[in-house]
Each structure stands twice: as structure tokens, then as C-alpha cells.
């Protein structure tokens, strides 16, 4: 076939039916398929949540920390993270815009700011994970795998295990591979044993149990002292913080989805930062100046905005709804 | 997009002089929407949490709608779908929307069914 014919033939791929270059179109292919992956994750989160709609943890009570501040500040930090990511999206569009106008120095500055924003976001997410894994109050798990949390009867505040657990002397040591005769280790010991928590609970009439069940007011059910006394007999394990098996916040799946979805998103942000750094150095080296256009900046820009777009949905479904 | 930018948002209600100006305008709009979401999430007005619409609290519907609004402006102005050809835009937008709606419909109905099985079945799980 003649070259000029293919140039004019849409089906031959000669001209550009969608008015977008090959690279940009491929980036859109990737983004659409990645969007479907994230949708799959979030939809399965919705599935599990609707399955356990009456016992799902309340996000406001889980994510209440802000770095360097003590006290209860639900959501402020996540809102800050959202703002940082939107802000870095803005610097990215500005970089794309400066690239279109062939302003090399402006593009460099805006790319740099974008990278900084991304780094702050990834750092915040790491901090968020660390706080989530460490936990703050501690809880008991029953034989049936349900989580029992504790509340101070007079103030209505959550009670940490350390507030009331009784220390029974004669603690045993953590087994580890290097000191054991049988070269076996065990999961990390909790700060208190079930017996210590139970004894402290019996001795302290001010402590009540809060179950996972959500009542009509949208709050977790608080048991009376009598109910609490009978309920604590079911307790089998002390749970502090979160791992992939159990967590002190409630439903086991909650922590699993948290790690999986925010982890997958965090990985996207991380790779986005790496790609941005590569492009940043390419701009400095003048690669795109020689090429005559800054379309590469626009392509990584698309990816970066996509990461922002996903976070908007993660923010809603994990922290707000 | 290479050639020109469409500089209007809100269906022509707001016109910007340059692309840079439009970007800052969209940022302000997105920040306001986020601020509203956070404020509603912290205060949780009773009218919104007590009323329910199609099996979900009104407050949650507001959150989801505001999220879609934000997603629209990120895709249209930051990812400049506004400046792309209509055919490209429709291909990108409607394919996932169709598939995701289908997936959500199936999964949430199934989840609700399982919830009822747990609730009315004869298996104890809270012990």
C-alpha cells in the first residue's frame, strides 16, 4: 500500500482519529484499566461493609490522630493529606502548562514542587500506617472473634487497657529463635495478658464494655456493668493495634482493606514520585528542549492526576462514608 | 489539547482569562468542596444522618455526589479532558462508568443478601 494512502486512511492508523498522540493514548489505556482495578478494590470493600453493615468500625473513631498533637482530631489530618495531593496536582498542571509554552525553568520549578508534595503525601501515609498498626486503646477478642472495647462510665471516654489492667507479677518472657532450646518463636506478647485485663476490669466498676454492634443512633452499643461482667467471660485474647489477622478497631476485614487499598494507592504515589523525578532530571538535562516539545511532562501529568483522582475516592469511602 | 484551551467552567458561568488562572480557580473550587465534606463529616448534622434514601444515609449520598463532582473537575480540567475530542472523552469516561455501576450493583445486592443470611440464619457468630 502506498504511504500517502495509509496516511489518509483512518482504519490504517495513519492519521489520528482521536486527536491524541500514541503515547498519550497508551497512557489513557493504562489509566482506564488501572481505574477499573481500583474500582474492583473499592467495590469489594463495599461488599464486605454491606455484609457486616451493623458491626463495621466507625472511621471517625479510628483515625483521630494528628502528628505532634495530642487529643482527638478526627479527619483533620486526612483532609490535610487530600489538600496536599490536590495542591501537587495543581503544580503538575502548571508544569504541563509551562511546558506547552516551552518555558524550561518554570517547568523545572513546578515539577520540583510536585515531587515535594508527593513526598509529603507518602510520608503522611507511612505515619498513618504506623499509628494504625500501633493502635491506641487496646481491646479484647472473644471466642467468636468479636472485639470488645472499653469505656469509662463516668466520662464516656474510651479507656485504654493501661488505664485499668492489673499487673500480675510473674510475667513470662517473649520466646525468640535465638534463645529458645527448640528454636521456635512466637507472636509478639501483648503488654497485658487476658487475666490481667479481666482482673483489672473486675476491680474497677467504672469500666464498661463497648461491642461492635452499631445502634440506631449510629454509635457503638455500650453495655451496662452487669452485661459487661457477663460479656468479659467470653474474652480470649488481648488485641493491641492492627495486623492482617486481627485489629483492635473491630471487623478483621476493615484492617485488611485499609492496608490493601491505601497500600496500593501509596505504591502508586511512590512510583509516581519516582517517575516525576526521572522526568524532572530529563527537563534539567534539556531532553525535551532538544525534542522540541514537552509532551512527556503531560503524560506523567496524566498519571499523577489519576493518582489524585483515586485518592478522592479512597478518602470518601474509607474516611467519610 | 496542544492548540487551545477551553477556559470556561460551570457551563460558561465562569470564564477565565488564561489557562493558569483556570487552574487556580479549579483548585479553589476543589478546596471548598473538600472543606464542606470535612465539615459535614465532623459535625454530622442529625437531619442528614437520620434520613435515609434508597438504603443509605442522606449524608453518605451527599459525600458520594461531592466526590463525583470533584472527580469531574480533576478529570476535565487537570487531565484536560475538556480539551480533548468528544469521541476520546466519551470512550474514556463511559466505559468505566458502565462497568463500575454494573459491578457495584451486583456486589452490593449480594452483600445485602449475605447480611440477611447471617442475621436470620441459625448460626451464632457473636459469642
UniProtKB/TrEMBL annotation, chain A:
Main subcellular location of this protein, as a coarse class = membrane
Q: Does the keyword ATP-binding apply?
A: no
Compartments, record wording: Cell membrane
Share an example GO biological-process annotation for this protein.
aerobic electron transport chain
* Name of the protein: Cytochrome c oxidase subunit 3
Its membrane topology: Multi-pass membrane protein
Gene Ontology MF annotations: cytochrome-c oxidase activity
Keyword Transmembrane tagged: yes
Automatic annotation (TrEMBL), chain B:
Has the keyword Cell membrane been applied to this entry? yes
Q: Where in the cell is it found?
A: Cell membrane
Question: In this record, what's one Pfam family?
Answer: COX4_pro
Question: Which cellular component appears as one GO term in the record?
Answer: plasma membrane
Record bears the keyword Transmembrane helix: yes
Q: Which residues cross the membrane?
A: 23-43, 58-79, 91-109
Keywords on record: Cell membrane, Membrane, Transmembrane, Transmembrane helix
Name the membrane topology term: Multi-pass membrane protein
Q: Which InterPro entries match?
A: Cyt_c_oxidase_su4_prok
Q: What is this protein called?
A: Cytochrome C oxidase subunit IV family protein
- The protein's organism comes out as Lentiprolixibacter aurantiacus
